Amino acid sequence: MSFVKSYEQILGNARETADFYDAEMITVFWETSPEAIAKLLPPPLKPTGTPLVTAFVANYPSTNFSVPYLESALFVQASFEGQEGSYCLAMPVTNDIAMAGGREIYGYPKKMGNIVLKKEGDVVEGWTERHGIRFMKIKARLSGKTNDSAIIDMLKKMGIEPGKTASSIAYNFKHFPSPAGGAFDYEPRLTKGEVVFRPKTFTFAEAEIELIPSEFDPWHELPVKRMLGGFHSVGDNSMLMGSVVAEVDSAQFAPYAFLKWEWPAAASGKVSQEQGAQRSDSNTPSPQAGEAAALSGTAAALKTIFSLMPANLNADAAKGMSAVIQYNLKDEGGGTYHAVIQDGVCTTGEGPHASPTMTISMKAQDYVDMAMGKLDGTKAFMTGKLKVGGDMGLAMKLGSLFKTRSS
């Protein structure tokens, strides 16, 4: 036993697949609104012709990585370069190693949760709970029928039907916050993986799902417009090795980057189980606010804003320009930053610049609000919250130089 492993141990533990033996699953499908899916898909993923949502609760009693656990998941149908698959929005699990492996290797948005799956006669029930909120409940009757026969044809097109081996494509994004406090360690990566299903038993089911609002697990953002039904299965499934198929723009991806993290719901960043159970959907922060709050606090928000600034530059508007903007941001969490714009390219840094073309001075939190579109720049200038020094002509162009964010 040691923290350090030999090469023999490493090679002996290498696996080409993650295998799940006698995996029991209740899987349900419904149609939501096209707008709901379009809102949640990060570029370059695109919606498909059918606004299909999939949810499941699973029990994995035995695996080839020595971890039995339960899992639930939420997927929406999506397409990348013409190939359809499922984009995973959430995947609670009951085991820390299963969470770490899925997140770090494949990019699955896994979190720890309480999960139950039980079968009594021809009725199967499953639910998931986090922070004292039971935010999803599935109940299915194994009648051999579905709520809507359309799902049977849809599943056949995917190769899923009783007695047949099937496979599906899963899309995820791998990304990590920067230890320096910026947005990301590297450009987020879109991954594609394949899961193979080998059902031993397979029964169609008439199903219902209840989605309870939770700011920690907002599955209710995909309301049921048309319940299609589902199936109960027991079989041996495998997750194959995946691949990175694209790198994505950090600024574009930032609002979607919080599937794996808890939002700092209270000012202190601490929420008790009782508080969590009392919170309502009206308190849920907007996804756009994520760009300035990858970590809690004004200082971290500023680091995120300036790390994203080069990607937010309007290169056409900045073509041929040579300028240095210095930001003197005071009070709690503040500091001095600068942005250098040179012929359509922007670089940023902390600290003062030797020869700024223009200076912007204001309270740090006011600047965060202005960068996020919560504070109008003209109004801030007219009321004295924003002070500009140096090249006023450049100041007049700032609105067109950087892409704006709405609150």
Indicate the topology.
Layout: H1 7-12, E1 17-31, H2 34-40, E2 46-47, E3 52-60, E4 62-63, E5 69-80, E6 83-93, H3 96-106, E7 110-112, E8 114-120, E9 123-130, E10 133-141, H4 150-157, E11 166-174, E12 189-197, E13 199-211, E14 226-240, E15 243-247, H5 250-253, H6 273-278, H7 298-312, E16 322-330, E17 335-342, E18 345-350, E19 358-363, H8 364-371, H9 377-382, E20 387-390, H10 392-401
Parallel strand pairs: 6-7, 6-11, 16-19
Antiparallel strand pairs: 1-3, 1-4, 1-14, 2-5, 3-5, 5-6, 8-9, 9-10, 10-13, 11-12, 12-14, 12-15, 13-14, 16-17, 17-18, 19-20
Q: What's the gyration radius in Å?
A: 24 Å
Helix count equals 10
In total, the number of domains comes to: 2
Helix content: 10-25%
Name given to the CATH homologous superfamily of the largest domain: Acetoacetate decarboxylase-like
Q: What class would the helix/strand composition place it in?
A: alpha+beta
Widest β-sheet, arrangement of strands: 1-3-5-6-11-12-14
Number of strands: 20
Under CATH, the topology of the largest domain can be stated as Acetoacetate decarboxylase-like
Main sheet makeup: 7 strands, mixed, barrel
The SSE order reads: HEHEEEEEHEEEEHEEEEEHHHEEEEHHEH
